[in-house]
Each structure stands twice: as C-alpha cells, then as structure tokens.
Amino acid sequence: MDPGNDTGTSQFLLMGFSEEPELQPLIFGLFLSMYLITVFGNLLIILAVSSDSRLHTPMYFFLANLSFVDICFTSTTIPKMLVNIQTQNKIITYEDCITQIYFFILFAVMDVFLLSVMAYDRFVAICHPLHYTIIMNPQLCGLLVLVSWIMCVLNSLLQSLMMLRLSFCTQVEIPHFFCELNEMLQLACSDTFLNNVVMYLAAVLLGGGPFAGILYSYSKIVSSIRGIASAKGKFKTFSTCASHLSVVCLFYCTMLGVYLSSAATQSSHSSATASVMYTVVTPMLNPFIYSLRNRDIKSALKRILKGFSFWGEGLLSVFYALSWNFLPIST
Fold first, then answer.
1. pLDDT in tens, the chain (331 residues)
2. Contact yes or no for 237/225 (Cβ under 8 A)
3. CA nearest neighbour of 31 among 103, 84, 82, 69
4. Which of 43, 143, 208, 283 is the most buried (most CB within 10 A)?
C-alpha cells in the first residue's frame, strides 16, 4: 500500500477495556477513584516535604519530585479516558495522540531516572555515611534532576518527531485506553523500521542503564549491610531503603509483567489491562509505601491533616455564622 495515500488521518479511536455499555459506569468509577487517590496522595507527599524543614534532605527532595512526576504521569492518560467514557465518544485527534505519546514517554522515563537517582542516594547514605552531606549536596541533587529532565525531554521529542514521519490508514482503532507508542507503530501504514530501532535503543539505554545502576547500588548496599555486626543495626540500616526498594520492585515487576503478558497472549486488550498496573496502580501505591513505614513522613502528614481540619472547622464556623445572619427571624 502506498503510504502517500494515507496521510489524511486526523483522528483515532481509543477502544479502551470493554465495549459493554453496562460496564462503562463501573470502569469510570474505578478509574476516577484511583486517579483521585493518586493525585491526593502524591500532593500530600509534596506538601509534607515542602512544609517540614526536617524533610529538606536529598532523599525527600527526590521523593517530592517522584510524586510530582507520578501526578503528571497519570494525568496524561486517565482524564482523557474518563472524558471519553462520560461523553461516550472514543475519538482522539491525531495532534492529541502525538501529544499524549510525548508526555507519556517523558514522565515514564523520568520515573525510571528518579528511581535510579534515589538508589544512588541510598548507596551514598549507607556505603559512605561520613561523606554523605558532602557528596549529596544541594547543587548535585539539583543537577541530577535537571540532567534527568533534559534527557527525558530530548528522548520524548525524538520519539514524537519520529512518529510524525509515519502515515496511518483511515478509521484507525487503537486497542488501548491511551495512545501507546508500540500500538501506534503497529497501526502505521508506512515503514516503521527506523522507529522501532529508535524505540528499542532508547529502551535499552534509558531503561536498562538506570536499572543496571539500581542493581549496582543495591549490590553495594547489601555488601555494606552484611558487614554490620548486630542484627538490629542491619535491620535499621536496611529499613532506610526498604520503601524505595519496594517501589522499584513494584514498578519494574509490573512493567515486566506487561511485556511478558503481551508477548504470551498476543492480545492488545490483555496488554491494555496489564498496563494499568504501572500506569495507574503503581503511582497510586507509591505515597502509601513511603508513608506507612516512615515516621518522618507520618508526623508531617499528621500536621498537614490537622491543619486541614483546623481550616475546615474555621470555614464551617464562618459558614454557620453567615447562614445564621441571613436566616429569616421569626416573630
């Protein structure tokens, strides 16, 4: 087929999870709840870190950045899906699809970079505790985040520009709840060899590289912990990186599960369902993982919630006072 005849495609259809009308309210309520929990939970982490001076450390600085990226990550896909369900309209324009691909890749890769940077922070804290404040100074922390953003932006820009060279057949249906890069490449009518090369090369360099760094950091951490004499000391040292290790395992295991499930079943709908784990569930669970086993985060969150309660009670008192003044006086 001549790709030059198929450049007129201006919109796609996001097929989502199911076409059954009776399931749409359930899917809408489920994803709306998960999205609100994700946004609220990660916002609380950001507020806790920014408002408590005791949390102004490299570890919590990276955690606040991770929470911000998780909010943006889920906001790239879920709101559009909720709007489509509510309006019963599966259409997404070509421009919106390319934009969604750009931001999805940007925040997904940024998640990977931040997890690797946080692993390096734990490596320095455990393996070089006496030089921790010197090595992990504010300038280095800011530089690590800035370089991560620059690399992610350039990668996303390259992937999006590579998509612009492709042409698509008319009435293209995407068997997913968002414009996923691999699914889009499979639907293209033109040659995608160069796109696949760039996609897999970026996955190896920007995905495998940080993962190798995480494995190296934790191999050194385990070696250092084994050198501690007391069991209590080992447990206390390991507990400082337990939350991060849990998030790393959750993120990478779910991504690996998506890849294996899609490769085994060869079903796009199964892949879409499995991808919910790392696009929605993981960002939603991250605040709980970091807050449940962290005393500093717990105490900061308690102060924030008390503040909300105080302002809520104050606003409620004002509301009652205004309501009383405007009520008609019986004679």
1. 344 444 456 788 888 887 777 888 999 999 999 999 999 999 999 999 998 888 899 999 999 999 999 999 999 999 999 999 998 888 899 999 999 999 999 999 999 999 999 999 999 999 999 999 999 999 999 999 999 999 999 999 999 999 998 888 766 888 888 998 888 888 888 889 999 999 999 989 998 999 999 999 999 999 999 888 888 888 888 888 888 888 898 888 877 766 666 555 555 666 777 788 888 988 999 888 887 767 788 888 888 777 665 555 554 454 445 444 444 443 3
2. yes
3. 82
4. 283
